Amino acid sequence: MDPVPTKTKFLDRWTPKVVREAKQVFRESGLKGVIRRYGWKFFAAFFAYYLIRDITLYILIPWYFATKFI
Description:
Largest sheet: none
Strand content: under 5%
Radius of gyration: 19 Å
Structural class: mainly alpha
Number of helices: 3
Oligomer: single chain
Order of helices and strands: HHH
Helix content: over 70%
């Protein structure tokens, strides 16, 4: 009997493999395990990504629309 293939979740298709692995390491070993495995550069990249994303969403886009339509 063949094993039934597992259905992948929607977000798993769009999430990079390294982020999924880091999430699994975090569940198993906690924050210290993630730091041991990926180092501080992973956290620097993670922080920079969210900083750029939030500045774009909450500052640049509203500022653009405010200057265009007001």
